[in-house]
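ingest -> validate -> predict -> emit
validate: passed (alphabet ok, no gaps, 726 aa)
predict: started
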Amino acid sequence: MLHDSYISSTDSDVARDAVPETVSMDPAIVEPPDVEFPDVWGEGTNNPWQNWQPDGDAGSVSGVDDDGVIELELVHSEDEFDNAGRRLSLAGTVVSLLLHVWIVFNLSGLFLEPDDGAPYVPPIETTMNEPVDIEEPEETIDYELANPDERELEVREVINSTSVGVAQNDNPQPKAPPTPELERPPTELQQVAYDIPEGIEVDDRIVVKGTVGEAIVQLESALDLVTWEIANNLKERKVMVVWMLDASGSLVGQRKLVHKRLKRIYGELDALERVGQLPMRDQPLLSAVVSYGQKTTFLTKSPTDQFPEIEKAFGMLKADQSGQENVFTAICQVMSLWGHYRNKQGRQIMLVAITDEAGDDHGAPLEVAINRCRRKGAKAYVIGPAAPFGARKGYVPYVAPENGKTYQLPVDLGPDAAIPSLVRLPFWFSGPQYNRPPLSSGFAPYALARLVTETGGIYFMSKMTTMAGLTPLGQYDAAAMRPFEPDYSYASPADCLKDIAKRPLRMAVYNASIASRQYQANSTPRLNIRVTPGNFKQVASDAQKSVAESGLMIDQILQAYPRGIENAYANELSPRWRVAFALSYGRLLAQKVRCMEYNYACAQLKNDLTPQDVGSKSNHWIFRPDSKLNYAAPFKKVAAEATRWLETVVNEAPGTPFAVMANRELKDPLGLKVIQRYVPPVQRRPGRPNAVATPNRPRVLFANKKRKNTPPPAPKPPKPPKLPRL
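emit:
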């Protein structure tokens, strides 16, 4: 197919040989190209395509000399050039567009997946901090480390207060055994490389929570444990020990014992041999002695390494007769005066307080003392008494030498928790009431325990003079008591109330405890009543009034528990609050049943008996506990519920004061039986016959003798004894 070409005259022979003589071309299909031909023919030469007509004869082309005309008959396919080109161009455009759309669509769905075979290495970030020397940081880093294995006391197990109750729970077992390393995929065995900086020192002012609630030990054993703590601290750094002695008169014997044991303590610490060998600044152990009562007395002017000065300071202590023990104020003063020994000499400050009471200045001075100790990294160790259970004061018997009588002197030993959690109710029938003397809680007084806990020290419960005001039953196993330890994180009762307001069961327990102090129930009613035919109804009514008043008080206390509070018991996680609720709620229900049983029994006696019955067969009523409710039958379900709650306390808290109180309530069953007896009235013996009255004989009076009409003067009452203030 030939187009867009020309044949010159010089190549006519070649053209004749190359092109067939006859080439047919359909003029309807073939159109001359729409281009300008160059002027190759020269002037006067006609364009051979100039006179070409598409509608002319098919196969004839004219315009060249007639003599040299080459007739070409072009034969073309049926597609015409113009329409075919347009269709092909349009089809190509559509195909190209579809192709690009398909490519863009597929490219938009592509994403890069990380190689599973290579472990992910986190970006390494290294921070360079230039250390800045600060003499006294204002804030103390406070981390709570619950690792009992890091305690320095190797002779016994010490557990942080934050891990209370963990020892009582079963160790959790994994649901599936661990996969051996040989069976694990290689990707899991690859360790990620981390940039671990070296040369960073951990701040030694990080406070590790202290411990309380250890077993009661003798004072000598407590001093040995304190010596052990001092020796362990000496292994790490230089130490300054401040002996803080309670100057109250009740602690005279304990102070003498400590004084006698000083030489042994410092001998075990090798402090006697090092005296004079090193300058005092370089001495590993410095000591100071302070006494406190209403005021603080610094028995040593400054910490010293001279043992004779320390021993002399103990002998200089004078008893304080004010009856006040401001221990926390004394700690604040000690830290203000000698706290710089921490910064300037790098010493570990150890405060060893020996007291037999809870302290009278807890509150704001307590928090100030804690903050100052934490700021300097000081640790507080206390040798003191146990707190009473559910009470604040104990009562110490004191025999007055003036008259030989015994007086119960109140002494501040508590409380054992930030807020009360037990109802105050008397017990029925014979047995201890646990109020005078109160039952021991097995824990330290709350203020001293908080001081020890927040500063990382230890509280050693020891036999003190004031502990004579506690019942001897209050000795418990430390491991059994640990799950029921109070929370010592509250700075004030207001903080504790703010926290328990979110927990309905705890708030109900607290409200019931406060209500029991406002609405006080009566103690055991009359259990042995003698009546006559004329007064038996009145006597029975008076007996009913006593238990009716107690029942009314108990109903007022029970209103502190909202309806459905039993369901919150299952959601409570604290063992202490659980048993506190079960004990208080169970005792209230039990007392309510006892009151109703007694009331119904008196009503039945009053209504069923007649004066003839009283005069012949029933004039002596004896009330005895019975396992069945013989009179208040509608309260059988309440009695069963009360028994169930009390038994829950015994089962969940064995060997604790909670169980002691529950067993005391369960000692006597809730029912009553009345033993009716008849005691014949005492017959009066007939009197002697009246003697014959003698006539009044005249009396002889002497004129000079004065008649004494005035009675002799009454003897002067003895002076009241002077009772000491403990």
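Residues 1-78 form one domain.
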